[in-house]
Design a protein that fits this description.
alpha+beta, 3-stranded antiparallel β-sheet, 4 helices, extended
């Protein structure tokens, strides 16, 4: 387990676990995680905070071929149907809609009785 894809996965796992700097609370970015090395399933990484420049050392035990199961509320076939379908324009349109939305879902979807 040492390909570029594996290293990206390792960084993502670390960021999902250690999201923020313990000193200042700023969120770490993907570019602030450096893999220092690994010995079998034990990985050593360094994180650097953009806010306060404090460095942290992380040791992570990540078992090979044991990636977490994806948990979703999509029904069978929807994950394939919707994969890669959301664009940045879609996200911008929802953001713009929510900026002006008054919270009245009943009028948005029609009243149900």
């Amino acid at each position: 387990m040492s390909t570029a894809g594996d290293e990206k996965y390792i960084k993502e796992v670390v960021l999902s676990t250690v999201e923020k700097c313990g000193a200042c609370g700023r969120a770490y970015s993907f570019d602030n995680v450096t893999i220092l090395g690994h010995e079998e399933e034990l990985w050593f990484l360094m994180v650097v905070c953009d806010g306060c420049n404090i460095r942290g050392l992380i040791a992570a035990l990540i078992k090979e071929h044991k990636r977490p199961q994806v948990i979703t509320d999509l029904i069978e076939g929807e994950s394939v149907k919707f994969a890669g379908k959301v664009t940045t324009d879609d996200v911008a349109a929802v953001r713009d809609f929510l900026n002006d939305f008054d919270g009245d879902f009943a009028s948005l979807f029609g009243k149900r009785e």
